[in-house]
Design brief:
alpha+beta, 6 helices
C-alpha cells in the first residue's frame, strides 16, 4: 500500500500529459504566456471565439480552449525585422537587443531585450505557425529544465504564421555559422548581457 500513491500519481501524470499532447496536435495552446508578436484567444466549448486573454489571464472552464492569434502589427513587424537583421544583415543577437532597447521596444514580459530573448524569438517555431509543447519540464520541488528537441510535441500549421519557412531556415543557418565565428568581444558582450539579466554568474559560467 505504501507504493500505491506514487504509482497512482505517475499514472495520473502520464494521462494528463497524453491529454495535453492530444490538444496540442489539435492546435490548442497549452502553457503560459504567448511568444512576442502573438496573443491568446479564448474559445468556448463549441470552438467559437469568446475574448482575447490579457497577460496573466487564464481560462476559467475546463471545456474552454486557447489558440494563438497574431498580435499588434508593430510587434509583428518587430519580429520580422529581428529575423531580417539577423539573417540578412548578419547582426548579432546582442546588437539587435541593444538597438531594440535604444528604440524603447520592450519584450513580451515588458522588460528590456537581451541576446537570450532575441535568440528565443529566432529559434521559436511558433512564428511558423507550429504549435510547440514540452520544450521545458518542471517537476515538483525542482528547477525547470530544457528538454531536447526530440521530446518536443509539435503540430505544424496550427495557427497563422508570422515568418515564412525560408526566412526561418536562413536564420537557423546563420545561427550555426555565428556560433563558429563568435569573437571574444561578442562573447564578452553576451556574458555582460546575461549578468545584467541574472544578477550574477557562477564560477563555471552558469547563471545562478
Amino acid at each position: 500500500q505504501t507504493c500505491a500513491l506514487p504509482i497512482f500519481s505517475r499514472d495520473l501524470s502520464s494521462k494528463v500529459f497524453a491529454a495535453q499532447c492530444h490538444l496540442v496536435k489539435l492546435g490548442f495552446r497549452q502553457g503560459g504566456s504567448p511568444p512576442y508578436g502573438y496573443r491568446r484567444q479564448l474559445l468556448d466549448a463549441n470552438g467559437k471565439p469568446k475574448c482575447m486573454l490579457e497577460f496573466g489571464q487564464r481560462k476559467s472552464l475546463q471545456t474552454e480552449r486557447v489558440i494563438l492569434k497574431p498580435g499588434p502589427q508593430h510587434e509583428i513587424e518587430t519580429v520580422r525585422e529581428i529575423f531580417r537583421q539577423f539573417a540578412f544583415e548578419q547582426k548579432s543577437e546582442s546588437k539587435i537587443a541593444r538597438e531594440l532597447n535604444q528604440e524603447g521596444i520592450l519584450n513580451s514580459t515588458g522588460r528590456p531585450w537581451t541576446h537570450q530573448t532575441v535568440r528565443y524569438v529566432l529559434s521559436n517555431e511558433s512564428y511558423l505557425g507550429t504549435n510547440v509543447y514540452n520544450r521545458v519540464s518542471v517537476r515538483l520541488g525542482m528547477k525547470a529544465r530544457d528538454n531536447s528537441p526530440n521530446e518536443w510535441v509539435k503540430a505544424p500549421n496550427a495557427f497563422e504564421a508570422i515568418i515564412d519557412q525560408e526566412m526561418f531556415e536562413r536564420a537557423q543557418r546563420t545561427h550555426k555559422q555565428s556560433r563558429i565565428i563568435l569573437s571574444d568581444r561578442e562573447m564578452l558582450a553576451r556574458l555582460a548581457s546575461l549578468l545584467r539579466e541574472k544578477g550574477r554568474l557562477s564560477e563555471i559560467g552558469r547563471a545562478s
